[in-house]
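agent> fetching stored inputs for the adenosine-5'-diphosphate docking request
agent> found them:
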Amino acid sequence: MASLVPSLGQLVSDATCLFKKLFNDEAPKIAACAPGRVNLIGDHTDYNQGYVLPMALSLVTVVVGSASSGQEAIIVTASELADEPKKVDLSLPNEGFPSFPGLPHWANYLRGIMHHYRALPLPGFRAVVVSSVPLGSGLSSSASLEVAFYTFLQQLRPDDGDKVAKAIACQQAEHTHAGVPCGIMDQLVSVLGMEGHALLIDCRSLESIPVPLSDPGLVFLITNSNVKHSLASSEYALRRGQCEKAASILGKPSLRDATVNDLEDSHSGHGPTMKISDPSMISKWEDFHYSRVSTYSYCSTLFVFPVPAWHCNKLTLYSLSPSQESRAQLDDVTYRRASHVIGEICRTLKAAESFKNGSFQEFGKIMVESHNSLRDLYEVSCKDLDDLVCAAMEVEGVFGSRMTGGGFGGCTITLLKADAIHRTIQNIQERYSGTPTFYIATPSEGARVLNLS
Ligand code: ADP
Ligand code: MG
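agent> prediction call returned; pasting tokens
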């Protein structure tokens, strides 16, 4: 069974009760909420100024509270997974008195938001945070906390109401105070989410196009692997660096500006680059190279494959000789990182188009290509996520499945026929060695003020 998500009303009621209990039975006067998100396709493209296709979820963070007469900012989280203490008294930032990161770690998201708030100074206040977004699972509890808290502050001291500037301020908070060099996707979709729609976001112009997801015969299923490997944050920063390096070697402002041809022209490969003029060779590769073939680029008559070092021995069996023509610039790892990003940006546009046209088979196929690319070229998947995708793909009625988010644990997203939901959950439960949690992804509204009366 999919997990039951507490209703917004329930969360507000829980937050109100806790607020009263902590603050002399006073009722909170203002409230705001902001959703977590799931990305349907386009992972690790946002910080490369590419495209993403996320939807805001019905999983939300709620902040309730009231202004106070003093200079205090007392905030309490009800989340058990947040580090101690759960109650913090933060100093209000002012010009000349910025807010610095510190402990507990969870409060850095709030320190960052107050620091980057676009209408300082703020008055004193008290607030309680509750959330139905699972923490650290790749559904962006961090962005939902930032955006909900920012929306709460807007009731205390309004800014100019610019939504994109708000998302950027929240992203800055995560960079400077939580130490996570994230892209703009999470905050933008948490601010702009639309009921019944995903958003095709151009992370360069920050424009977004709503993509309707209203077919009642279809379901997007989120499967939480409930694992998070500790290398997630260091590898994320490493990948960002590799993308910047690739763009700079290619002479481009970002990988958004690079094409497959730019990449091929600049690849040295520590392994050799092979040119095969006979496409029938491809079938011979499939024994050992199958999942990777589709992720590499080719033109109609001349196939150009970067050959990862681990295949070199096998390739010599086919007597292929290395091309002398490639230019020695991009090393093999950087090449593969860039190859994922450039391919993923194209896939995201193609997938959005397929969905609009009702080509769900095609959408599903692109999802699997995306997963394979994240696994083999970007190397951010792990056995848990690969197993979840395989288990989903075994079921009749499933169109496609892929890891979603940063990787190294977290969630997968699967597109399937609504009538296949029970057998899909059952098969994943039987096949997966861990303990998965399931959510039906309901495309929901972005951040909003809540009326407490
Ligand atoms: P994700 O955003 O995918 O859930 P992150 O590692 O980016 O994972 O963010 C999780 C962190 O955000 C938590 O460890 C905690 O510090 C903070 N956080 C998120 N939601 C809350 C909350 N409701 N209360 C306190 N801290 C939270
Ligand atoms: Mg996060």
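agent> quick read of the result: The radius of gyration is 23 Å.
agent> awaiting further instructions
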